[in-house]
Each structure stands twice: as C-alpha cells, then as structure tokens.
C-alpha cells in the first residue's frame, strides 16, 4: 500500500505541521462508513449536495481517527488528539494529494473514458495483462471527481501499468480529472446518451470527454465512429489517434469478420498486415467492441500479449455483481465469486460490513487468490489482517496456499483442500443466521456452494438490481431543485420488490425519509437496523404505542385521529413528537379539509407533545396532461394551507405534494420535499417518459416438466387449452397465487425462453403453476429458465394485457417468490 507521512500530505496542502509524532497515512477516506484502520486514515470532510463530511468527524474521532482535512474550523478542545488540516475546499485538497502522488508515478498511465463499457474494458485489459506485469487499476468503477483521486491513490510505485477510468456528468469536469490523471495513453469507448441532460449535444459531450487526452501520446478509438472521429479532428488530436475499423483496410486493426455463435465469438482480424483469429467467450456487442479496443491498444503498447490466444479464449465474464442471496437456515449470502484479486477482496469485505446492519456474526468462505507479482506470504498476511479488521467471526479457507499460510489468521479458521471437501463438511457446520461472504476464484467453482446454501423454497426468483434503484433515485433527484428533500415510498413491501433491502440502499444514499403504509412495515425495518426517519401513511389507532416505541412518524388525516394520537403521545411523555398532516385538495381519499384549519390550529396550540414536521397533499391526475388545471388547483390549495399554518405555528415545517408523475411534470412545484414511488422501481407512470429510468425488477422461473401432447388433446382445468398439432407443453412453478393474473391464461401472454423465443400460455392458469406451449422453442427443456419480465421484456406488457397498471402487477407478487438482490 502507499503510505505517506502525514507531514508530507500537510506540505502538499500548504499546511503547517505541528505534531510531535508523524503518523503514516495509507488510507484516504471520504465515506465514513468504509472506515477500517482508524490510525492510518486521513478523513476528507467533503461537502456535497448529498451531505456534509464534517458531520461525521465526531463519530470518526470516537472510533480512533485522528487526521482530518476540513474546510470548517473545528473546536480543538473537543478533539484533543486530532490534527486538522484546514483548506478552503476539501474535494480540491483530495485532488491535490492525488495529483502529487500521480506526479511520483513512473509507469505508463492509461486513461479510459466514454459513456459505456469503461469498467468492462478496464477489466478486460487487466485480465490480459496481469499475468505479465503488475497492473494497478481503479477499484470498481471509481471514475468521478472523488473516485479518480481515490483510484490514483491506490496505484503503487511497483505497478508497471495503471488503468484509470474517468467519467463525467457535467461540462468542465474533465479538465480537473485530466490534470490529475495526466494519461500517457488514452482509450475512448463510445459516446452514448448517459448524462446527456447536462450537455447541449452528443458532440458537446464528446469534445468534453476528449479533453482527457489533451497531453496524451496515443489515443485508441473505434475509427468507424464518426462522432468520435470528428471530435478528435476538431480537438486537434486525430494525428495521435489509432483506431480499429470494419471499413478501412489500412487501420492498424482491420476487422474482416465477426461471427457470433451461441456461446462464443470469432474475430477475424488483420493486425498490421498479419491475419489473426481470436476466439472469445463474449457474445454481446458491447464486450466485442471493448475487446477490439483492447487489441488496438495492445498492438501498440504490449504486442506480445496478442500472441497469447489462450488468454483471449479464457477471458472471464466481467461481472461486477455482488449478489445478496437469501440463504437457507436464515443465512444472508453475499456472493462474489467472479474475480479473485486482492482489491476486489477488500471491496467485498467492506460491502459485507456495511450490509450487516444487524451486527450478525460474519463468516468468510474464501479460496486461494491467484495474483501474480505478490509473494503468497505477503498476500495472505494482508488478507488475514483485513479479516481481523473487519471482525469476521470465522473463516473457511479452501485451497493449498491458504492451508499453508493459515498461521496468519487470528480468527478461527478451518481449511479444506477443495470446494467439494467443504461442501461435504456442511452438515457439521453451523451457519445459522450468519452473514456469509463467498469470495472465490473462478476455478474454485464456488457456485456449487451457493447452490447448496441458497434458500430453495421456490424456483421462481425476482431479481432486484439495487444499482439501478440508486440510478433512478439520482435521476429524480436531479429533476427537482437542489436541496429539495426526498421521501422514498417503500410501502407495500417496497412496491413488491422488497422493503428492507430497498430501505437499506436508500438509507445509504441518504434519502431524507422513507414512507410505509402500516406500523408493522415500519417496525420490521427498525428491527433490521434501519435508523432513518420513517413515515407511516396509514397509522392504526391500536398501534400508536408501538409506533412511538419504534420512533415512526404518523400521517394524521383527521381531527379525531389527531386527538387520539395526542392522548397517546401525552401519556408516554413525548415532547414535540413529529407528525405529518395530510390535506385533501381534491383526491377525496383521506385528509383534512382546508376548511378545518381553525379547529386544527386550536388543537395544536393546546399541546406540546406533538409538532407538525410536514404538511402535504396527494395529486390525483399528475400524469394526465388534459387535467393540468385540476393539478394546479390542488397545488395551490396546499400552498394556501401552508401559508396559513406557517403564519400561525411558531416553528417551520415542510410542505410537499409531488409523486413520481408530479416530479416529472411539475418539478417547479417541488416545494420543500417530494414523494418518490413507482419511478424508483424503474417504471414511469407516464407512458412516453421512460427515458433515463432503469428497470429494477426482473422475474424468472424454471421449467418443471415438458410433455409431448398429441393433436386434439386438451391442457389443464376445464379443458380450455386445445392443441391443434402435436405439441410440447412446459409447466412452470408460478400461478395466480404468485401474482400471475388468471386472465393471462389461454394464450393471453407469452414469456421468453433462454434463446429468446416468446412462448404463450396455454389453458387456464392454476394456483401454483401454469402451462406454456413450447412447441416452437426447442431450447425449452426441463430445468431451462423462463423469463416473465425483465429489462427487455417490460412489465407493462403484462399490465396492459389485463387492463391494469404496472403498480398492481409488481405489488401483488407473492412473498413466496424469492427476492435476489444485487449491485453492479
Ligand atoms: C404511493 C404514494 C406516493 C407515490 O406515488 P407514485 O405514483 O408511486 O410515485 C406518494 N404519496 C402518497 C401519499 C402515496 O400514497
């Protein structure tokens, strides 16, 4: 690891160093939740629109951190042992430290930018290079104004090449990144729609990205990409650019043909005049594009790699997914079995620590790590130290190298020769209720362990992509004026997607409030460790005591409910307990009538046991353009109530009205806060407004059995499905009790097989199963997967078919459908 004396960093930042001792700093921390080694950490108290790093100093000091970079003066009496470096701008200071470190690095630094595929390309290059040289690279996809300095900091003097990603979402960001990275070589993947809202045109964005390469020797790109080619020309960089091409025979890498088969692709290329064929295991266009960029780069910088055809044939799928799977015996499994280098190991441990909000015992199942360049003794000593730091309770170590170095581990460690030996020992292993991290090299085949440990109540799985949830959250956050608070609606089990995992993710994103429908939903979140403010939309009188006990905040919609709540709050000795007042401005569901304001004020002025935290209303037709007059009238009624109450109440409160459709269409009326629901889950409530959202949920299941049925026979209850030709009929374990509406039977909907064929339902849908006509889909065999909906098979297909809205389809998926959460 890099380590600098604190005094050196102080000098870089122009501060005077006054301490008697000079601690070594090897961790630059920007997110207080990732703290591991307090005494070696320098915390940067960055201020962003998401939060103020200075708020975490107290907590970090209590945990032993002593070195801080701040922009707000701190009381040194409060932190007698701390050293504060005061700067005008903490983010800038972080970047200065990274720039100084970059200046000391001698190896070539490769800057990678573009709209998509940066991480994939980086990981492909890593896989191709790391057996020959020491490769330093950005962790995960750290490519922002904070991520880039942290990436640079992770590069060691002993690395022989560094791969650094740079991503921008705003004009003028790239200059800052370019100064820090100062790339020797550059690669640009493509220019797509991502973050387009902040750029006047694709061309504008392209020119911004190319600023990374102002002082770069060689730039690699796809020469057939007109936009990038013109951008390079306009930036005066074309003479330094080399590209691959399908059209230009004189390109350094000329693509003669690309033949994609079911599970591999053949690339026939002419590289500097010589004909070469590569077989790669990717079949998707994006990855193939990235491999061609990698080849173009390598023929210039490291041509010997190109003769290693085997390395290309064995490129692993690039999956940055850390999956969280519900295990049997109440385990929580965190599956990270795709890459096994040391950096990803430390990321996975960090992830597990954050995930474990209930402080359950943690278990690590790990295989030998194969990382060239580091002697095994060093590698495993570092691993053991991290394990101890993260307070892992037990380790199950699989492989000869780990066995040989077991003495490094201070926590109880059991060794196994092979994955199969470990599986054989499972009946004697107690993993009940624990959080289990699986971190294995591909060759260790840890998926076998996952299959053994995962909960198998049902073969039907709802995949939930938490990274996309975060994307959608930020998408809406960017649509409302800065500083607007956000309530995330996680009612009805998170619209059917799952409340705890969603809540935990949103808590990490520092959303301001969560809202659930009933007290029990809020209680369940509290019991699992969700500590942020939670509103309850429909608080039952009988549960008021429990509501207060769990510090949930009620929505109050009538005088009698308010009276009752005040009685309970009084009896429990509460003072200023936060409540939220709901106003009926036209929806006519629940709420105070604006005419009741005087009675309400009278009641509020008599008590100090409650206090109005916010007032709000719910819009009935925000999604409907033809009804805008009605919506505006609702908004103005609420504003009227708000003015009146703020004149009379001696304290401030928030006012809010917008749901998802409201945010999309009436962002000017965001007021203090908005309530985001369906959009979080990647579904737009407005037909032509899906742009920019990413689907969060996908439903899949497997075929239980396939039968050959002769022409003329019938399928299922009531003999409703008649087959007119000899047919193959598949049964899948999902029925109306799982949330598949009975109206979808008899061919009213089709699902997708693994080879992409759409197969219709046949016969009536049963309670737990349904039948599909798979006569035209030869890949539909027993055990094969069937997709009900996902990112390419939208859930709206289903809701449209039966005349409802996607909200209903999602929220009615039965709890017995296993949810599987992952991050990308
Ligand atoms: C469900 C709900 C929302 C969110 O609505 P979406 O259309 O899902 O964004 C907002 N406010 C209230 C009161 C709700 O009940």
From TrEMBL:
Q: Supply the EC number(s).
A: 5.1.1.1
Residue intervals of the Alanine racemase C-terminal domain: 696-822
Domain of life from the UniProt record:
Bacteria
GO function terms (MF aspect): acid-amino acid ligase activity; alanine racemase activity; ATP binding; pyridoxal phosphate binding
Reaction(s) catalysed by this chain's protein:
L-alanine = D-alanine
Gene Ontology BP annotations: D-alanine biosynthetic process
Q: Which cofactor does it need?
A: pyridoxal 5'-phosphate
- Using the UniProt record, name the top-level EC class of this enzyme in a single word: isomerase
Extent of the signal sequence: none
Chain positions recorded as substrate binding sites:
589, 767
Q: Which residues form the active site?
A: 491, 717
Q: Kindly state which keywords UniProt assigns to this record, in alphabetical order.
A: ATP-binding, Isomerase, Ligase, Nucleotide-binding, Pyridoxal phosphate
SMART domains to which the protein is assigned, alphabetical:
Ala_racemase_C
Pathway(s) of this molecule: Amino-acid biosynthesis; D-alanine biosynthesis; D-alanine from L-alanine: step 1/1
Q: Which residues carry this modification: N6-(pyridoxal phosphate)lysine?
A: 491
Q: What Pfam families does the database record attribute to this sequence?
A: Ala_racemase_C, Ala_racemase_N, Mur_ligase_M
What is known about what this protein does?
Catalyzes the interconversion of L-alanine and D-alanine. May also act on other amino acids.
By sequence similarity, the record places it as follows: Belongs to the alanine racemase family.
From the Swiss-Prot or TrEMBL record, give the protein name.
Answer: Alanine racemase
């Amino acid at each position: 690891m890099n380590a600098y004396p604190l005094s050196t960093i102080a000098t870089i930042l122009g501060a005077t160093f006054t301490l008697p001792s000079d601690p070594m700093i090897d961790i630059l921390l920007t997110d207080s939740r990732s703290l591991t080694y307090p005494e070696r950490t320098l915390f940067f108290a960055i201020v962003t629109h998401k939060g103020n790093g200075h708020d975490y100093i107290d907590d970090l000091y209590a945990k032993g951190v002593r070195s801080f970079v701040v922009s707000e003066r701190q009381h040194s009496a409060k932190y007698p042992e701390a050293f504060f470096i005061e700067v005008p701008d903490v983010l800038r200071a972080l970047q200065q430290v990274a720039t100084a470190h970059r200046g000391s690095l001698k190896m070539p630094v490769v800057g990678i930018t573009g709209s998509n595929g940066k991480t994939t390309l980086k990981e492909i290059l890593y896989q191709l290079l790391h057996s020959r040289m020491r490769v330093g690279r950005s962790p995960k996809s750290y490519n922002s104004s904070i991520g880039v300095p942290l990436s640079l900091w992770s590069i060691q003097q002993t690395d022989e090449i560094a791969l650094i990603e740079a991503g921008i979402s705003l004009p003028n960001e790239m200059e800052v990144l370019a100064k820090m990275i100062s790339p020797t070589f550059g690669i640009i993947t493509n220019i797509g729609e991502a973050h387009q809202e902040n750029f006047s045109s694709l061309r504008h964005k392209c020119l911004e990205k190319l600023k990374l390469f102002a002082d770069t020797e060689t730039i690699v790109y796809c020469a057939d990409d007109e936009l990038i080619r013109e951008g390079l020309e306009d930036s005066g960089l074309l003479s330094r650019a080399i590209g691959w091409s399908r059209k230009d025979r004189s390109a350094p890498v000329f693509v003669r043909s690309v033949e994609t088969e079911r599970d591999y692709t053949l690339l026939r290329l002419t590289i500097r005049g010589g004909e070469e064929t590569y077989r790669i295991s990717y079949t998707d266009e994006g990855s193939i594009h990235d491999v061609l960029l990698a080849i173009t780069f390598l023929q210039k910088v490291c041509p010997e790699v190109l003769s290693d055809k085997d390395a290309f044939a064995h490129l692993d799928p690039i999956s940055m997914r850390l999956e969280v799977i519900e295990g049997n015996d109440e385990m929580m499994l965190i599956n990270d079995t795709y890459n096994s280098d040391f950096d990803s190991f430390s990321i996975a441990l960090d992830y597990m620590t954050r995930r474990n909000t209930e402080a359950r015992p943690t278990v690590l199942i790990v295989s030998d790590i194969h990382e060239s360049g580091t002697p095994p003794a060093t590698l495993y000593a570092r691993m053991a130290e991290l394990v101890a730091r993260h307070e892992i309770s037990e380790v199950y170590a699989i492989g000869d190298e780990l066995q040989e170095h077991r003495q490094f581990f201070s926590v109880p460690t059991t060794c196994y020769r092979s994955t199969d030996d470990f599986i054989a020992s499972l009946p004697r292993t107690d993993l009940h209720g624990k959080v289990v991290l699986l971190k294995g090299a591909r060759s260790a085949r840890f998926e076998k362990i996952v299959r053994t440990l995962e909960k198998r109540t049902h073969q039907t799985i709802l995949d939930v992509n938490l990274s996309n949830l975060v994307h959608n959250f930020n998408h809406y956050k960017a649509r409302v004026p800065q500083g607007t608070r956000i309530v995330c609606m996680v009612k009805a089990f998170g619209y059917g997607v799952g409340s705890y995992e969603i809540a935990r993710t949103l808590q990490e994103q520092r959303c301001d409030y969560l809202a659930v429908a009933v007290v029990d939903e809020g209680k369940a979140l509290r019991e699992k460790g969700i500590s942020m403010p939670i509103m309850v939309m429909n608080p039952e009188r009988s549960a008021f005591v429990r509501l207060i006990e769990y510090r949930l905040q009620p929505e109050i919609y009538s005088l009698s409910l308010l009276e009752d709540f005040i009685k309970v709050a009084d009896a429990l000795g509460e003072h200023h307990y936060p409540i939220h007042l709901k106003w009926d401005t036209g929806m006519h569901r629940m709420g105070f009538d604006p005419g009741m304001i005087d009675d309400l004020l009278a009641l509020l002025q008599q008590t100090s046991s409650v206090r109005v935290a916010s007032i709000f209303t719910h819009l009935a037709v925000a999604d409907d353009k033809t009804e805008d007059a009605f919506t505006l009238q609702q908004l103005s009624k609420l504003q009227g109530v708000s003015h009146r109450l703020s004149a009379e109440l001696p304290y401030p409160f928030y006012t809010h009205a917008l749901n998802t459709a409201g945010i999309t269409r009436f962002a000017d009326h965001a007021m203090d806060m908005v309530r985001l629901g369906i959009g979080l889950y990647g579904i737009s409530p407005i037909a032509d407004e899906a742009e920019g959202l990413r689907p969060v949920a996908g439903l899949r299941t497997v075929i239980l059995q396939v039968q050959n049925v002769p022409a003329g026979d019938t399928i299922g209850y009531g003999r409703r499905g008649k087959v007119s030709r000899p047919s193959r009929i598949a049964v899948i374990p999902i029925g109306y009790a799982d949330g598949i509406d009975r109206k979808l039977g008899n061919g009213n909907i089709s699902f997708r097989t693994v080879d992409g064929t759409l197969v219709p339902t046949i016969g009536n849908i049963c309670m737990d199963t349904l039948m599909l006509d798979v006569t035209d889909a030869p890949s539909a065999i027993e055990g094969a997967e069937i997709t009900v909906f996902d990112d390419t098979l939208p859930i709206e297909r289903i809701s449209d078919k039966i005349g409802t809205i996607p909200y209903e389809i999602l929220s009615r998926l039965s709890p017995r459908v296993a949810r599987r959460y992952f991050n990308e």
